[in-house]
Amino acid sequence: MALMTSPIPVPEAVRLLTKSRVLELQYAAGEVYRLDFEYLRVYTPSAEARGHAPGQEVLQTGKRNVELLAVEPVGSYALKLIFSDGHESGLYPWELLYNLAVHHDQLWAQYLKLIESRGASRDVDSTPRFQHSACGSRH
User: Fold this and answer.
1) Domain boundaries defined on the chain
2) Global pTM?
3) Which residues face 77 on adjacent strands?
């Protein structure tokens, strides 16, 4: 029997609201989500933050005041978000954005708990910086 999958929700409208410091996603079913810049930055899908394998994740710190400078479409499947701290390497596929929106409260609470348990700060960036080799891997 073939597996049936639900279609990935794609927003009908995406708005960068700089004064409110949120990215607004509007869906056909009437759902509207507002994801703040810090939340989007700390949940970046980039390999720099997520690692290449389980256990290689790097806690993103000091992102409370990060700005989202630009939002660029990538084909018909993702957005590229460009942040004021120079981060622009993570592509945010529609499925990830929808999951970040739907599970916002749970994920945000999880992040705050992790920050606290590690004695880290949302105001001070203590994220390790890695050297990149010619192949692009962190060493």
Assistant:
1) 13-117
2) 0.84
3) none
pLDDT tens readout for residues 114-123: 999 999 999 9
* Structure tokens belonging to residue 2: 């073939």
pLDDT digits (tens, 9 = 90+) for 88-109: 988 999 999 999 999 999 999 9
E strand or H helix that includes residue 13: strand 13-17
Query: What type of residue is 26?
Result: Q
Q: How many CA atoms lie within 13 A of 118 on its CB side?
A: 16
Q: How many CB atoms lie within 10 A of CB 84?
A: 13
CATH 3.30.2020.30 assigned to 13-117: yes
One DSSP character per residue, the chain reads -PPP-PPPP--SEEEEETTTTEEEEE-TTS-EEEEEHHHHHHT---HHHH-SSTT------S-TT--EEEEEEETTTEEEEEETTS----EEEHHHHHHHHHTHHHHHHHHHHHHHHTT--SSS--PPP--B-TTS-B-
d(CA 98, CA 101): 5
Q: How far apart are CA 84 and CA 65, in angstroms?
A: 9
